[in-house]
Amino acid sequence: MSTVRAITFDAAGTLMRPWPSVGNVYADAARCRGYATEDSEINERFYRVFSETQSTKVTFEGDERGFWRMIVGRTFEGFCPKEIHDSLFEELWETFAEGKCWRLADGAVDTLQVLGTRGYRLAVLSNNDSRLRPVLRDLGVSGLFEALFISSEIGFEKPSPEIFQEVERILGTTPKDMFHLGDSYSRDVQGALSAGWHTALYSEKACASPENISRIESFRELLDLLP
Question: 19-100: which CATH topology?
């Protein structure tokens, strides 16, 4: 990886995680309206709905709010009456636009700072929406990145080659210059490999990965992986 000049990081699931959990934040919003909901049930429903949406490639053509309105509505089906789904969505949309319900990965800040001193160009490459910008500002890390590449703003999502090519165009780099870290094998790792980039899978828990794919469990391991 001696040719690497720039490193991009996935956001949700890699650089940061919902805090304490999506299920907790969602369930709290419902409980405040008088509806008994369990964190674990809502959490399981959310990730099932989100996964189904990703696998069926449901698109809203840049309508960020429309996409998340659908996710919130489907998550609360059977738990709360439909007439309050809109108010739940509005509250949750605003809540997740703030850093208070997100936590950075352990060691992320120190690792990013060291990589910066080593001369690497750092950026975020995320299948996220525009709320990522204020979240990273709230978390105090936006200044560590040269650029934020957000799928809803670019018009393509990982693993589409177009989003990786857009990063190269903006940064003025070539595939051999690039390294991407993310927690999704299909979107992050395979997308980066297809684009000709270097890559590694980030997973805090042990998981299977192809022998030729680097996997790290903490941000600090990047300091050993990259020269």
Answer: DNA polymerase; domain 1 (1.10.150)
